[in-house]
Amino acid sequence: MDRAEILMTAPMPPIVAETLAQSLSVHHLSGQADAGGFWREVGPRIRGIATSTLFARLEADLFERLPNLEIISSFGVGYDNVDAAAAAARGIVVTNTPGVLDEEVADLTLGLLLATVRQIPQAERYLREGRWLSAPFPLSPTLRNRRIGILGLGQIGKAVARRLERFNVSIAYHGRTEQQGVPYVYHPTLIGLARAVDTLIVIIPGGAATRHLIDGAVLEALGQEGILINVARGSVVDERALVAALQSGTILAAGLDVYEDEPRVPQDLIELPQAVLLPHIGSASVHTRNAMGKLVADNLVAWFAGAQPLTPVPESLHLLARVGRS
Ligand code: NAP
Ligand code: 8YV
User: Fold this and answer.
1) What is 5-100+287-322's CATH number, 3.40.50.970, 3.40.50.720, 3.30.70.640, 3.20.20.70?
2) Averaged over 63-92, what is the pLDDT?
């Protein structure tokens, strides 16, 4: 039987291509000298895509070039790089990689929080610059008595909250719905949460529905001792409002792993000493990226073996029920 043909649109850990190659035929978009010719010749044969948030958003016009596409397997739990509703309308299933990265991203979030509050990168730079020889590093803010708010108490948000329980801080959260059986205070509005806390950790999906939820008003509500930690998507925070709030002292500090126009980071942010800036490394360990890669491949392998995909996104569930694969 002919092997189904898969297109990989972005570089991924070797485990993805290795696993796919056992039962499927793999094409790589990178390195195609004649992209137009590639789409014309190979496009109609492609039945599955392995893609990533590192690749530009998959626009609907790509679907035109791939008339026989059945499934898009995306590397990452956030899938704002794919129009999953448009895909479902065309009968294309979308999968992502939830669960396998929760603990890694939560570890990084706690690291970023502590680094931001206790100014760990700044102190490290201070020592390397030889400045300790002249004077001790200035005293930092503290995590003690901080009131932590989590925007998005999902799988990763809960892993963050579980860790924070050991730090003897108060924990509250906001999402669109109150959750049963969680021991944290729910705030029905984001502005209400921001007023009630002084440290806001953002871990919700990106995309149009959450664009610029963190704006000047939310930052003002967080207050002068306020610390913003964003490990969600850059699009969730109005970056210009954040820079202004840091420059004016409206909030105290920020720790960011994600940006509006990655990998470009505004020079204004880079110049702010009270911002700790990481290059989108939440899940970026060898262990976890391999687990994500395995899941990307396993979703495709399952689909082309005639089984259910392992981790379809919610927008695909109706479609899967209709085709008897749920
Ligand atoms: P999840 O389990 O689906 O949780 C998402 C949470 O966000 C839910 O609690 C949901 O609660 C809340 N939410 C969704 N839309 C909202 C809205 N409009 N307003 C307020 N709350 C909203 O997802 P997850 O696995 O925890 O991942 C969350 C996100 O983290 C991903 O989508 C991705 O963008 C980001 N991420 C970043 C990195 C990194 O490297 N920095 C790594 C992994 C993930 P309700 O449904 O009740 O609103
Ligand atoms: C990855 C992420 O860095 O899972 C996500 O949503 O943002 C990260 O785990 C990203 O998906 C790499 O493409």
Assistant:
1) 3.40.50.720
2) 95
